[in-house]
């Protein structure tokens, strides 16, 4: 489906998991897209390099919400190496439209049409950027 | 009686400042909005893009802002509304809130020098009907809200100098109480969202009669998709600013009788306290714990206005 605001994307905006902030996170990261003003705040507990608890507040456009919904689904249990791998694939998709994800992350292909909308790139990247920062902040 | 809503107040948009839409522009705007209502958003958006290539009419810019909101791009919507606000007739609460320019809308009674700033779910039906009584007009009950165009835009910071001697009043309410009243009274009781969209049970994948937990969890999205939700759930601070001291009278719902007495004394007209709202709205259902996003939305209201709730 080439439509950007298709039913699947819109549905995801109401499926954002982990919307309760954590009381005692190891890291709290806030990132704002300079282009559109979307903002994502994330709390995480990281144990032995694995995210074991996650909370997020998403003040973003529909596409940012959809990205946060997909990434949030897999936040618990996520390792830095898996995140880096998926974030790289996602960046490639956003720039070129090429999709290459393992089955677990296949929903990210729904966001492929964003390639033609550069103003939205910053927003869809936010969930990855906050998690990259979480791992940086909690690195030994 | 001579009280009138038509005044030469400062900062008002005069009818002749607005650009009239051509029949073609009007028809095109209707077609775009119909696509949106039919949940064919991409078609609506494409048609709007086409319209904007040939017309700069504010009507299309308003729709652009509406669509920016639908996409969740509040900053873009705000920018658009700020640019066209002086050309908009009867801006909605959501548009004023997005413009964030220090203006609020008030019902003005020139003879009695009264300015009442109505806020949704804060007894505004009763108060607006009282204003009608003071103006010597027939009351309208719930239909009073169809007279939004009778309000004037007020620069809150300059109210003292623009309207010297006026009695500026407003009624506020705990945001959670407002939200619950809107949910139980409007969305569930009167099925507002369902009625608004021709009986649909879902609109862009959002149930028009959702469960409370679902509604609260997805309030941000409901506010982006349904303008009526946005209008009824705007934080107080985005509607009447952050300076309660600019008002001569401000109080909670329980103080409406006091306000009515004050207005009676000021005008010399008896004001029966009206109960326009249905009982379902007046009941106080148990208030669930609000999700973080809802608490965050209303944090400033609590900070600025909680003393009056």
Question: What are its keywords?
Answer:
heterodimer, A: 140 residues, Sufe protein. Chain: A, globular, B: 309 residues, alpha/beta, five-stranded mixed β-sheet, two-stranded antiparallel ribbon, disordered N terminus
Please describe what this structure looks like.
- The complex is a heterodimer of chains A (140) and B (309).
- Chain A is α+β, with helices and mostly antiparallel strands and 140 residues long.
- Chain A has a single domain (7-137), classed as Sufe protein. Chain: A (Alpha-Beta Complex).
- Helix content of chain A is 37%, strand content 18%.
- Chain A has a 3-stranded antiparallel sheet with strand order 1-2-3, covered by helices on one side.
- In chain A, strand 1 and strand 2 (39-47) form a beta hairpin.
- With 309 residues, chain B is of the alpha/beta class.
- Chain B has 2 domains: 18-89, no CATH class; 105-175 and 234-308, no CATH class.
- In chain B, 48% of the residues lie in helices and 9% in strands.
- Chain B is built from 17 helices and 7 strands.
- Chain B has a 5-stranded mixed sheet with strand order 3-1-2-4-7, with helices on one face.
- In chain B, a hairpin with a 4-residue loop joins strand 1 (103-109) and strand 2 (114-117).
- In chain B, helix 4 (74-84) crosses helix 5 and helix 11 (219-225) crosses helix 12 (227-233).
- The longest helix of chain B has 15 residues, at 23-37.
- In chain B, 40% of the residues are buried.
- Mean pLDDT of chain B is 87; it is low at 1-16 and 277-281.
- At the A-B interface, helix 1, strand 3 and helix 2 of A face helix 2, helix 4, helix 11 and helix 16 of B.
